[in-house]
């Protein structure tokens, strides 16, 4: 059974729907519930947008953990999407 590792926190986003899939959750959903769903899906990413909407991304394996990490690090260094919060999760 795979175990979740992390998360690593970023102040950015991957951008658009470049990960091929996302699930939208609203701010009235607790972060704990979002975390549990993310782990159940083996998703790599939780995004919180500035109005407080959450997105679970990276669960259809279109991009792997390292590719997602690279996108987040690049976007953060360029100051893109700085009002968004991202939690990157790996699995071992």
Q: What helical percentage do the residues reach?
A: 25-40%
Shape: globular
Number of discrete helical segments: 2
Report the sheet with the most strands, covering strand number, pairing sense and barrel closure. Answer: 5 strands, antiparallel
Parts with pLDDT < 50 across at least 5 consecutive residues: none
Report the order of strands and helices. EEHEEHE
Radius of gyration: 12 Å
Could you tell me the mean pLDDT? Answer: 89
Strand content: 25-35%
Task: Provide the structure class.
Answer: alpha+beta
The protein's oligomeric status is single chain
User: First CA to last CA: what distance?
Assistant: 9 Å
- Give the strand line-up of the largest sheet: 1-5-3-4-2
Count the E strands. 5
Please, could you describe this protein's structure?
This protein is of the alpha+beta class. The protein is built from 2 helices and 5 strands, in the order E-E-H-E-E-H-E. A 5-stranded antiparallel beta sheet has the order 1-5-3-4-2, sandwiched between helices. The radius of gyration is 12 Å and the shape is globular. The N and C termini lie close together (9 Å).
Secondary structure layout plus pairing:
Blueprint: E1 4-10, E2 22-25, H1 31-41, E3 45-48, E4 54-57, H2 65-77, E5 85-91
Give a brief description.
With 92 residues, the chain is of the alpha+beta class. Helices cover 26% and strands 28% of the residues.
Output the keywords.
92 residues; alpha+beta; 5-stranded antiparallel sheet; 2 helices; 28% strand
């Amino acid at each position: 059974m795979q175990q979740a590792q992390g998360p690593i926190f970023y102040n950015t986003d991957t951008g658009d729907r470049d990960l091929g899939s996302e699930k939208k959750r609203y701010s009235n959903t607790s972060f704990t519930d979002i975390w549990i769903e993310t782990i159940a899906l083996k998703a790599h990413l939780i995004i919180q947008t500035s109005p407080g909407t959450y997105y679970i991304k990276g669960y259809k394996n279109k991009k792997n953990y390292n590719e997602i990490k690279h996108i987040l690090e690049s976007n953060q260094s360029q100051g893109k999407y700085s009002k968004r919060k991202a939690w990157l999760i790996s699995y071992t």
